[in-house]
Amino acid sequence: MNLRLLVLGITIIGCLLLGCADKKEEVQSKPISTTRPNIILFVADDHGTDALGAYGNNVIKTPNLDQLAREGVRFNNAYCTTASCAASRSVILTGLFGHATGSYGHVHDYHHFSTYDKVKSLPVLLEKEGYATARIGKYHVAPESVYHFQEELKANPRNTVEMAEQCKGVLNSEKPLFLYFCTDDPHRAASTNPGQWDAPNSFGNKVEGYAGVETITYKPEEVVVPDFLPDTKESREEIAQYYQSVSRIDQGFGKLMQMLKESGKADNTIVIYISDNGMAFPGAKTTLYEPGMKLPCIIKDPNSKLKNTTSDAMISWVDLTPTILDMAKVDIKEKSFHGRSFKDVLNVKEPEGWDQIYASHTFHEITMYYPMRVVRDKNYKFIRNIAWRSEYPFASDLWAASTWQEVYRNNKEFYGKRKVQDYLFRPEFELFDLEKDPDEMLNLANDPNYKGVMDEMIKKMKDFQIKTRDPWLITWDHDSSLQGTGINL
After folding, report:
1. Among residues 84, 16, 55, which one has the least CA distance to residue 372?
2. Which tens digit of pLDDT belongs to each residue from 159-205?
3. CA–CA distance, 13 with 11 (Å, rounded to integer)
4. Strand blocks (E) in 378-479
5. pLDDT given at position 201
6. What are the recorded GO MF terms, alphabetically (predicted)?
7. Which residues are catalytic?
8. Three-state SS for 39?
9. DSSP E strands: which ranges in 102-206?
10. The model's pTM
11. Is 79 helix (H, G, I), strand (E, B) or coil?
12. In this predicted structure, what is the pLDDT of residue 483?
């Protein structure tokens, strides 16, 4: 009897051990990449919503990005916080406004803006969670210790097909992957000299083209001229060049998606397409008018309930880092970021509580000091131009642009719908009702009928500056320009 019990006990223990071993083996053999999604953040340079088929442009050819929109969610109200390359990218990768991190403008040596060492960026946080992190193309943030990626891939950032091909190795990573894919297109190129203002390659386009890329050209007479630009020969020629550069992006994006599918990981990879700021034309890039800050954002999340749909939720690039961390199943502390996760928005057709954003711009280049702060609340948009007594400064490439030079050299009164004088010399306060005035032409700031709206917007702006430790908060108390206006502080 005792022997039988002993044999039975050994058998039971053996079965239990075998079961545990099988369970342990199952856990070990399960690829890490299936527990957390791969994430590709694809960032174009100076690409507005004006030049994408998915956003209503029927002329430009962007079939691969349009396909992404059919497979995911296209956001109609996605905003950068500052319409400047380096400053915007610092926000994208930290979830913090640049005025709070020292990322006030360009990071080139002669500008030397740099993020504080204590900041923990998205790639660093993801690496800590077991992600393989890699970047390719435009970087434009500093210091490297803050924005550290485990792997830097090399390719011509104007040739997105070549860039995609260089990503083959990381796409096969055994760990969950975060790939930061950043093009130089459609940024202007070699165009800071007004003497070359009609150069045909101002958007990186070359007569000989790029290896592996089909050169897609556009006729100036067929392009769509946005309302804020003058409809001139020069504008149309430059927009045609801009379109050509965007089509190059689309081909590289398509190549990357093809390679992702071939890797077998497409069903577990979140793909995000955005731009750092609006098109590189005066009135868009470097401004916080809508063409400068309202940008494309298309997200394909295989686990999202919504497909081939649009979202009117108002989101901001300061929300990207907490959102991506949330998607990666990382526990995030809301107080660590100025933004918040919009992951759940991808599952709700009409989300509530997503009708307000803030923006903060201080510099583009070091010579371009013109701090602006913005509150967008539902249909109202409030801009404070802190250095309003100064002439609005030009980015060097925008000053050289033939679109601007044609107006400047001919001493024209209007630039698009705006008077040149009004573009260069702005009031301290601008208030627009975007539902009635999408072109931001009618400033309501001094209209007595909108005094209550102004008071509320100023309060929101000051609260935002206090919350985000904005050094420019002090200018409210040091500026006597409000005296006699009737505006309450």
Report:
1. 84
2. 999 999 999 999 999 999 999 999 999 999 866 677 666 655 679 99
3. 6
4. 380-385, 414-415, 418-419, 429-433
5. 61
6. arylsulfatase activity; metal ion binding
7. 85
8. strand
9. 132-137, 151-153, 177-182
10. 0.90
11. strand
12. 45
**Upper half-sphere CA count for residue 225 (Cβ side, 13 Å):** 20
Phi, psi of 311 (to 5 degrees): -130, 135
Helix (H, G, I), strand (E, B) or coil at 485: coil
Which residue shows structure tokens 């131009």?
385
Helices (H), 30-84: 63-71
pLDDT of residue 23: 31
> Could you tell me if 433 and 379 are in contact, meaning their C-beta atoms sit under 8 angstroms apart?
yes
Distance CA 356, CA 362 (A): 21
* Residues 6 or more apart whose Cβ sits within 8 Å of residue 447: none
The answer as to CATH 3.40.350.10 being correct for domain 38-355 is: no
Among all chains, which residue has been given the structure tokens 């990879």? 269
Structure tokens at 428: 């301290």
Contact 445, 431 (CB under 8 A): yes
Report the run of H or E that residue 356 belongs to, with start and end. Answer: strand 356-361
| DSSP state at residue 345 | G
CA dist 364 and 345 (Å) reads 32
C-alpha–C-alpha distance, residues 309 and 253, integer Å: 20
CA 361 to chain centre: 14
Task: Let me know: does 79 contact 107? Beta carbons within 8 Å.
Answer: no
The full set of domain ranges for the chain reads 38-355, 375-477
CB 186 within 8 A of CB 46: yes
Instruction: Tell me what pLDDT residue 333 has.
Output: 77
Positions in the chain short of pLDDT 50? 1-33, 480-489
pLDDT of residue 477: 82
Tell me the CB-side half-sphere exposure of residue 282, using CA atoms within 13 A.
Answer: 29
Residue type present at position 481: S
